[in-house]
Design brief:
This protein is of the alpha/beta class. It folds into 2 domains: 43 residues, no CATH class; 110 residues, Zincin-like, CATH 3.30.2010.10. It is built from 6 helices and 7 strands, in the order E-E-H-H-E-H-E-E-E-H-H-H-E. The strands form 3 sheets. A 3-stranded mixed beta sheet has the order 4-6-5, with helices on one face. A two-stranded antiparallel sheet has the order 1-2. Strands 3-7 form a two-stranded parallel ribbon. Helix 3 packs across helix 4 and helix 4 packs across helix 5. The structure holds zinc ion. The site of zinc ion has 3 residues, from loops.
Length: 162
């Protein structure tokens, strides 16, 4: 079987007609990490590679980072929160519950400081505004006036297993 990622980020698998769909799907699944990295690079995204063996240490680092930055920024805004946790979330960077619990993706430990701070401030601001209204973004902008740029940078960053 042949796997090609084209410059326009199209992924094409070539296989003999006798190969069943299941076999082709297995092949794609097996190489999904490689495909993701290749597509991200093709699309001009910054790829931050991590290893499976680093997850535990990254979780510890993320919790230390999130705790310190939450204390700092919550104090700055005059917010109070309940608990902070770090999770292996698949597609989210963070969340904030109505009970005031903040949760962060352990991958924040790999991000440049200003991007990790944006994620932390974003979730903290949900303590006051449980939505993405203009009032919410005005709160974020109090600390990060150029948050649109930082969000763009975050969207262009992929933390993935090498
Ligand atoms: Zn949000």
């Amino acid at each position: 079987m042949r796997l090609v990622v084209y410059p326009d980020a199209r992924v094409v698998v070539t296989a003999p007609a006798s190969f069943g769909a299941r076999l082709i799907e297995q092949f794609i699944t097996k190489h999904s990490g490689w495909i993701r990295r290749k597509v991200a690079k093709t699309a001009g995204r910054k790829v931050i590679p991590i290893k499976k063996g680093e997850i535990l240490i990254l979780k510890k680092q993320a919790l230390t980072l999130a705790s310190a930055r939450c204390t700092h920024f919550a104090n700055h805004y005059g917010f109070t929160y309940n608990k902070i946790s770090v999770r292996a979330q698949k597609s989210r960077w963070g969340s904030c519950s109505r009970a005031g619990n903040l949760s962060f993706n352990y991958k924040i430990a790999t991000l440049p400081t200003h991007i990790a701070d944006y994620i932390i401030i974003h979730e903290l601001c949900h303590l006051a505004e449980m939505n993405h209204s203009s009032r919410f973004w005005a709160l974020v902008a109090k600390t990060i006036p150029d948050h649109k740029m930082v969000r763009k940078e975050l969207r262009n960053t992929l933390v993935t297993f090498s």
